Amino acid sequence: MKSIYLKSKLRWRTLKTSNRTIKHYYRSVLGNLSKPLLQIPLMAIDLEMTGLDPKFDQILSIGLVPIHNGMLQLGKAQHKLVSIDGSVGDSAVIHGIVDRQLATAISAKEAMVWFLSQTQGHVLVAHHAPLDMCFLKAEILRSLGEKMSFVAIDTMSLERSRLLRQHEVLKEGSLRLDACRRRYGLPVYAAHNATVDALACGELLLAQMVAIAGKDDLNLFDLLR
Amino acid sequence: MDASELQPIVQFLQQSVPFESLDEATLATCCRSLTVGYYSKASSFVPLDPSHPQLYIVRSGAFEVRDISGELLDRLGEGDYFGFPSLLSGEEASNRVAILEDGLVYHLPPDIFNLLRTKSRQFDRFFNKAFAKRLRHQGRFKARELTTTSRITTLMSHSPLMIDMKSSVADAAKLMRKSRVSSLLVIDNKKLVGILTDKDLRNRVLAENLDGKLPVHQAMTTTPITIESNSLVFEAMLLMSEHNIHHLPVVDNGQTQGVITSTDILRGQSSQPLLLIGEIERQKDLPSLILVSKQIPLLLQNLISADARAEEIGRVLTSVTDALTRRLIVLNQQMLGEAPMAFCWLAFGSQGRQDQAACSDQDNGLLLAHEPDEAAQGYFEALSKAVCAGLNECGYVYCPGDIMAQNPKWRMSLNRWCAVFDKWVNTPDPKALMHCSIFFDMRSVFGPQSLFDGLQDEVLKNTKGNDIFLAGLTGNSLTSTPPLGFFRQFVLERDGTEVKGIDLKHKGNALINDIARVYALSAGIKEVNTAKRIRALMEQNIINRKDALNLADAHEFIAHMRLSNQGYQYTHAKPVTNYLMPKDLSSLVRHQLRDAFKVVHDGQVGLKLKMMRSY
Prior knowledge:
The complex is a heterodimer. Chain A is built from nine helices and six strands. By secondary structure, chain A is of the alpha/beta class. Chain A has one domain: 2-Layer Sandwich (Nucleotidyltransferase, domain 5), CATH 3.30.420.10. In chain A, strands 1, 2, 3, 4, 5 and 6 form a six-stranded mixed β-sheet that branches. Chain A is globular. By secondary structure, chain B is of the alpha+beta class. In chain B, the strands form seven sheets. A four-stranded antiparallel β-sheet of chain B has the order 1-7-2-5. Classes of the chains: A alpha/beta, B alpha+beta. Chains A and B meet through strand 3 and helix 8 of A and helix 1, strand 1 and strand 7 of B. Strand 3 (71-73) of chain A pairs antiparallel with strand 1 (35-39) of chain B, so a sheet runs across the interface.
């Protein structure tokens, strides 16, 4: 059911858009959706933003780590800094990015074109995906003038439903990336940047997939909700 | 992007031996080449793809390495590695890695692994050592059985006799008589349709009052039970006993390959040590004993090809020599009559140490309870000459140094033996010290143990703590050193014009034997087998545990190399020697051999420090 709805939505979007890059993007994703889960290229992503409101805040950096055949590919991991209007201000403390580093940054529009070309054909993976998707959609609308739709797996919502199914009480902070990782015995990564967090999120997904599947075969739509 | 973005992974590797030995740039390259996987208990084993070997670096979780037979080799956690043996040897992984706890694993591709090996010597050494350790582990725990591992192709007859199904039973019987076999395969149009045995001729022809014109197909056993050529000997035995039959046609995909009989299997068994020793003890005269001894080289080959431990091979072959010696003594005593006094047949050198291999010569002597009178002299001369000659004919050639019981010099009473050893110990001139390597490794093969103990106790009492003697013995053993420089510059020992390679016996095992002997004599340890001596020395804290285990492992490794080299020489019809050609070695084995020689060198240095301080 979910799969039919999602696919027809993507087909509809493919028809409607006049932007050739985006049309191509949709087609490449659609072509991969019916494959067995292990053969679908996944892309663990993480964004760093100046704040939490897509209307006012901006993307600072993007980290990507592809997952092919159930393996994270560190050699293909990528990282881009995005230039912003104004200074990083207070949030620089959080992300450790200083204005000086932003000199190597690319413009938001360049970043979106780069993002679309890098993630072509991939199903995205993010921790708390809706937030990252909102930012990406807003930026694409702003710089490319297109209303975008993504296929993304949210490791946070996977974790929430898994915990609820086990009748666990969700405590404050129990769904944060580090807390989720600890539950699977995954190592604690001290440093944080978009690439490390994308990697951390990708590793979490691999562990979740194993936990959800047990001995059964998993398909993509078990992971999308 | 640079690897600084992957800081947690770089940090992890920086804290892991041997990655910490790599420079920053190399580490970054290495980091960028990794893939990350997650393995779950639900799938039990890590799927190792033989066509795609890689180094597995455990980041979290717990794993277990087990060999094919399920024997535990290693248990792994964070910061441990697996998969490197097939990267180093190029052979397909035979071990399995079980998942005990779900875990994250980094994969390092082979090209980067090899790059790191060339960049850092420490990195290379680390994995070679780990590999050697795991190999030793494997050797230590593997119990091997010949019957259960050898295949029937080695025993079956490959050109079985066949007869057409329309021939008469009389023709069949004549063919069987002519070729002295007890069964024929019956064919129709080149296809196997039955088997005709002695029993069929008796039960279905003679007992039924039928004559010889009867066609074979009316007497044969139709659609006989068959076996495939790659089956184990063990499986053939099982089939035969299950169906109470003695003949199994060997058929692969409808093609008749041969036939295997219960006699074939019995013959195969006779090259096994226990049966061989049993057979030796049943023989009633010298000619039949010589015939049986012809199987000894085959036994050695079987043991080598079954990959038995060198120490086991030495002990098995020595038990055969002991049995042969005892049988020769008994047979000769049957002719010469009862001995005039108690005596012991002494084995020296390699037979004493129980590490005989191919082409051993005799080293023996006779220990008499009292001073013999003329008649007794004559008796023991006749006995020892006959036994030494018998051994010579059985393949144990006369000792070139004439250290044999048939030499009156080495046929003495207890008192005179004690005096001779006394002289060697208290006035250790060079010649006496030369004798030590042979005479101090002595064992009684025949005769009352109490008589032998009398001699050994006296000898050890004299050597124990005897600084001057021990220093002399040490000095003598240090005149030969392991060929360490060999690996750098390929300095070869030359014999005439021919390049011979590394002498594994005299530059390897003999030196370890020397070291163990000096320590054992200094401590009054009764064992003479080198491995047992080292074990005893370790238990009495005379050598520390680590050095003792290293020495024992080096001894085993060099001896194993020597035996497998001899196995290779034997099967390729080359003269069997102790020399190993370095060009025949892979770089890995060369590495391990150098490590083993390094242990010998360290052992010599340690011995010198302990025994020659007063100089």
